Amino acid sequence: MKKKLFTVLALLPLLLSACASNNAPTAIPTIVLDDNASPTNAEDNNITASAVIVPARYARLSFASVGKVTQVNVKVGDSVKAGDTLITLDDSILKAKVKEAEANLSAAQAQIRFLTRQKTDQVHLDQANAEVERMQAYLDSANAALAAQSALTAPFDGVIVEVNIAPSEIVTPGQVVIVLGDLAHFQIETTDLSELDVTKIQIGQPATVFIAALDANFTAKVSAVDRIGATLGGEVVFTVTLDFDDQPDNLRWGMSADVQFDE
Question: Over the stretch 127-168, which tens digit does the pLDDT of each residue have?
């Protein structure tokens, strides 16, 4: 009996060792990456922005004074030349002011002649001459207002995009009545370029422009970077303007685009 007990006790350490060996966790291999050999994504450094297609020149035209429209000479789609008359106003009030200024000037000049015949003193003559100069300035101003405020003319060659007035209607100062654009030459303007990225943009920097409506990429270069930012959704953004290297056909004012600036 003692011999059998001794044999069991002798075998017990071997059984425990075998169990421990079977339950031991398998070691997980460790992989060490070399920082210098880590792959990088070149696109992470590219600057991108949403953009819109705009004419190289456009203007929202308005009058500086109140007036009644007598004639609208253009319609949407018309091509115009610089200096063409687009809209005319009733100028009867402006002409009345010119006549009033002419009458005041004539009266001041008559006063000079009267004082000269009376051989009045120099002080009064100087005062009369000053009044003549003041009335002449008033007349010049009235004539300038008649020329500038009675008609709206095209500031450059372009195409009429909007007409927001009709004959017999009253215009007010600052009211946009005509939108004119140079639709022969287009540019790209970014709409959401952040203040963090604008400092990395330089004049002449190349870029790739994707226009969704044309489903194609085009090359362009930066031509202007705004000095003053705007707020968009609580973020400060800057407008960057780009010129096409080769302007595509079928562009339209307002088409959306995506810009990727090349390094």
Answer: 999 999 999 999 999 888 888 788 999 999 999 999 999 999
Ordered by start, the domain boundaries in the chain are 44-90+151-261, 92-149
Average pLDDT over residues 209-218: 96
At 65 the pLDDT is: 82
Residue 237: other Cβ atoms inside 10 A: 21
Across the chain, mean pLDDT equals: 86
Say how far apart CA 32 and CA 27 lie, in whole Å. Answer: 16
Whose tokens are 């990429």? That residue is: 217
The CATH topology of domain 44-90+151-261 is OB fold (Dihydrolipoamide Acetyltransferase, E2P) (2.40.50)
As beta bridge partners, residue 181 has 58, 159
- 256-261 and 158-163 beta bridge pairing: unpaired
Distances (CA, A) of 262 to 210, 220, 221, 224, 248: 13, 10, 10, 16, 20
Confidence of residue 26 (pLDDT cuts 50, 70, 90): low
Whole-angstrom distance, CA of residue 210 vs CA of residue 52: 11
